[in-house]
Amino acid sequence: MLYPSKLIEDAVNEISKLPGIGKKTALRLTLHLLKQDENATEKLSEALINLRKKTKYCRICHIISDSEDCTCESIRKDSSILCVVEDTPDVIAIQNTAQFYGYFHVLGGIISPMEGVGPGELNIESLIDRVKKSSGLIKEVILALSPTMEGDTTAFYIAKKLKPFNIKITTIARGIPIGGELEYADEITLGRSIVQRLEYDATTN
Amino acid sequence: MLYPSKLIEDAVNEISKLPGIGKKTALRLTLHLLKQDENATEKLSEALINLRKKTKYCRICHIISDSEDCTCESIRKDSSILCVVEDTPDVIAIQNTAQFYGYFHVLGGIISPMEGVGPGELNIESLIDRVKKSSGLIKEVILALSPTMEGDTTAFYIAKKLKPFNIKITTIARGIPIGGELEYADEITLGRSIVQRLEYDATTN
């Protein structure tokens, strides 16, 4: 593409490096910013720089946080349940359900031999340490990982590591999504949801 | 949405102010930047700030440019044709066709009583001036405006203003897009494309 200005070209190039944003969208965003108040662009830039320079990871739960001691072990209610997730978006998603009141532990990724990610690169050792140090306070670990090959491998690895502590290990329910149509569900999900069928409860259904 | 960090929240809020980007996409972009090198975010921020602070509008053609004297009247070939467009993206689109070698004139908008944009807010006076000052050098003005109500109104207004100069006034061809299916074309477009039919030319068809 030919741009009338080097400055536009630079901005388009930088914006289009973001995932899911092509050159056309980048150009649209660039021209949008040009039409806005100068202040709007300044605030955007500042927020990005602050984000990148100031965010830290909590030493305990490895969640992205404003400080190295996040509120992970104080504000949430139930210290006996620990929910293990792949990354921060999962924490946000689970928090937004308002159905979980325990602690989180962010792995920072998932075991994936294809992408060269082994257990050593993830926060698994610190999870084991955390369970160990809780001296029986943590009674249940929920493995809230995606039901993919990598997610299952990671869950299997962690479950094996946690076995000596004799705590309850659970995984999020897999099945037909609420609102989903049976006929369009894939065979594996449908099959599992029949094998792992639940007692019908008129109060929740 | 609950965010684990105020910094993430700020970044998400700023990014989601951009057109077509919601909170979820903004969060995805934010977490992407956090995973990238710090340098990537710095370059993005810098490009945005430079864009907003340093871009100027050319005094002659009103195109967005790095300086107030863009190369509008030097590098392009044919000084006898002037193409009038609504805004900078149109200039980029037409340049990318590599079918036009004349000069451009950016109106900076389109007459739209609904949005309170009158002829006075657009670069129409400067277009008339430009044609006047060219003392006959500009022989044709192409009105490359969108075939909408507003575009047609603006074209009509400009055509009337340019009438005294006795130059050729043309408009971009309207018709069935190349690759388009006849049966799906709207009636007005199809009707016009029959009324304004062209002599069949085996060399270009």
- Largest interface, chains and sizes: A-B, 56 and 56 residues
Q: Low-confidence runs of chain A (pLDDT<50, min 5 residues)?
A: none
Assembly type of the chains comes to homodimer
Biggest β-sheet: strands ordered side by side in the sheet of chain A = 4-3-5-6
User: What's the total count of β strands of chain A?
Assistant: 6
The CATH class of the largest domain in chain A is identified as Alpha Beta
Choose one word for the global shape of chain A.
globular
Strand content of chain A: 5-15%
**Helix percentage range of chain A:** 40-55%
Radius of gyration of chain A: 22 Å
Q: What about the largest sheet of chain A?
A: 4 strands, parallel
Helix segment count of chain A?
7
Determine the CATH topology of the largest domain in chain A.
Dna Topoisomerase Vi A Subunit, Chain: A, domain 2
The chain-level mean pLDDT of chain A equals 86
Number of domains of chain A: 3
Gap between N and C termini of chain A, in Å? 56 Å
Which structural category fits the helices and strands of chain A? alpha/beta
**Helix/strand order of chain A:** HHHEEEHEHEHEH
Q: What is the CATH-assigned architecture of the largest domain in chain A?
A: 3-Layer(aba) Sandwich
